[in-house]
Amino acid sequence: MIPGADAAPGLWQPHDPVQPAELPRQTKEIAAGGLTLECSGAAELTCTVHESAPGVLEVRVVPDRTAEIRVGWRVPCVDATAFWAADGGEHRGLPPFWRRPRTAALEKNAPVGCLVGAGDVALCTYAAGEVVRPVRTRTGVVEETGDFGFWVEHEADPRGGLLLRLDLSRRHFARTLTDVAAWWGALHGPAREVPEVARMPAYSTWYAMQQHVDAASVERQAGPAAELGCEAIIVDDGWHSTDRGRGYGYAGEWEPSLAAFPDLPAHVAKVREAGLAYLLWYALPFVGRHTALWERVRPYTLAYKEHMNAAIVDPRYPHIRDLLASRLTRAVKEWGTDGLKIDFIDQFAVENPPEPGPEADCATVNEGVRRLLAQLPGDCLVELRQPYVSPGLWPHATMIRASDCPLSPLHNRQRTVDLRLIAGPLAVHADMLMWHPGESPEHVAAQLVSVLFAVPQISVDLTAQSPEQLEVLRFWLAFFREHAAVLQRGDFRPARPDLAYPQVTARSADTVITARYAPLPVEVPAAGTLFVANGDASTGVLLKVEEPGTARVTVRDCRGRAHGEELVRLEPGIVEVTVPVGGLLRLER
């Protein structure tokens, strides 16, 4: 055992610090929803519980003075299959309770998690109302009892206290998480309106060109991208410097490279004339040591990243915020771009940052980041990226992208589905899709199907694709566009997070779209239209029929070519239909 005044009695918690003896913790227990909630903190506490919906509790713990407040509870770990967390990455197993606590704040992660049980029910979904300041959570299997333990803590004051939502309704886990996103929206006010272009396919230069980007290469992709169905182009790293080595030693001044972009406004206008919105990439926190700004910002940094050859500047200083905001604002106000791709906000989350100096106007980095983002243009497209997924960022963004996973359809699927569950109003974008020049049309299509419920970003040389690869792009991007309302804003039901979502479904009143990534049966609705996108290597698609009737069935291959259409009689049971890899089944009842 490792002792600690803030550790639960008898539980091994090696990462808990020993609390100072002069800060005795007050503890109150509350019985609610079949749980015993233990509320504790170095203050007198007032605890209230409100059932906002059947099985959904809102717990508020208010201290009589500002203090770290914790709420802890346990549920029996029975029929549990997975633990879902916003920063869980590819790990969906059940963690031990003694592991290091996680921290969520404005610049990284989100304060939410879900213990998922058999049948994809949520055994317990929790979320904190605090979305800017740090929130620490510990979750995991309690070895001593076989329970699954939770605690959530953050510094709270007498004005608002610690607010916690607990969903014990045993509904589908996806419904409980999307309800958390709605709850955050209600707590923190309306987010920025997301224009439709943010939900349409886009082209990105990153995997296609890396840092070898220039005006001519971008313009060469613009026409084909627009013709295939893209509505935006994102120009990534490389536009601001002639340096072609990885790292950020030349980042921070954000002046276009005259060798690569001799007339950036004219270039932007040319791309926009081709029919594409234009977004420009920025590594927001970095100032490189090879820039003219280096000596100027050195006293105002949070940390130096040796491997990046750059420092992370400190947004607690107003002149640093002004410096960064003015650089990014130029892209929209002077160069005519439609938006910004803002990278590396999570790098502001420096452990143990230095004490702010007298020129700082806020005490925490979280508040500095919030003020910095508020200074950026509010009328343009803004892309963010995992792992900075806090709802506190919603007022400053229009879309959020899965973190980098080149040529990994499984990771792209898992990350985009995770984002869809808690992204609220933001358009969710897949990581950029790339493939080897010799890739088959079927597997190009399978990559597109892997991110069917997000916005695809294409990042290959479109002028070098085979006719068959271009047919795949044209067919599937048209499907994304035509069915964007259902795919991105329909009722969303991913299955089996413990198996990386082998089947995902979205539905509207009369349309159901299911993507299969494993040979699992697909339920056929009693009425309306069913689409089944085959992202699996098997071609025998099993349809589970409950209501008898007649349906018209059409099958298309990965290039959109019809492989037959017939009127069939459906009887209750399992019906097998052959759908090519990367192909599409349409069933109309």
What does this structure look like?
- With 589 residues, the protein is α/β, with parallel strands linked by helices.
- It folds into three domains: 25-188, no CATH class; 196-284 and 319-351 and 363-484, Alpha-Beta Barrel (TIM Barrel), CATH 3.20.20; 492-588, Immunoglobulin-like (Sandwich).
- It contains eleven helices and 33 strands.
- A hairpin with a 7-residue loop joins strand 24 (491-495) and strand 25 (503-507).
- It is flat.
Using DSSP, what is the number of strands? Answer: 33
CATH level-3 fold name of the largest domain = TIM Barrel
Give me the side-by-side strand order of the main sheet: 22-21-20-19-15-14-13-23
Rg computed from alpha carbons, rounded to a whole number of angstroms: 25 Å
Distance between the termini: 63 Å
- Tally of separate domains: 3
Poorly predicted sequence stretches spanning 5 or more consecutive residues: 1-10
- How would a textbook summarize the main sheet? 8 strands, parallel
- Total of DSSP H or I helical runs spanning 4+ residues: 11
> Any idea what the CATH superfamily of the largest domain is called?
Aldolase class I
CATH architecture annotation name of the largest domain: Alpha-Beta Barrel
On the 0 to 100 scale, the average pLDDT is 94
What order do the helices and strands come in, and which of them pair?
Elements: E1 26-32, E2 35-41, E3 45-53, E4 56-63, E5 67-76, E6 80-85, E7 102-104, E8 112-117, E9 122-128, E10 135-142, E11 147-156, E12 162-167, H1 173-188, E13 202-204, H2 206-209, H3 215-228, E14 232-235, H4 264-273, E15 277-283, E16 286-288, H5 294-297, E17 301-305, E18 310-313, H6 318-333, E19 339-343, H7 365-374, E20 381-385, E21 399-401, H8 409-422, E22 427-429, H9 441-450, E23 457-458, H10 467-482, H11 484-489, E24 491-495, E25 503-507, E26 511-516, E27 522-523, E28 529-534, E29 540-545, E30 549-556, E31 562-570, E32 573-578, E33 584-588
Parallel strand pairs: 13-14, 13-23, 14-15, 15-19, 19-20, 20-21, 21-22, 26-28, 27-29
Antiparallel strand pairs: 1-2, 2-5, 3-4, 4-12, 5-11, 6-8, 7-10, 8-9, 9-12, 10-11, 16-18, 17-18, 24-25, 25-26, 28-33, 29-32, 30-31, 30-33
Helix pairs in contact: 3-4, 6-7, 8-9, 9-10
InterPro entries: Aldolase_TIM, Alpha-glycosidase_related, GH, Glyco_hydro_36
Protein name: Alpha-galactosidase
Organism: Nonomuraea jiangxiensis
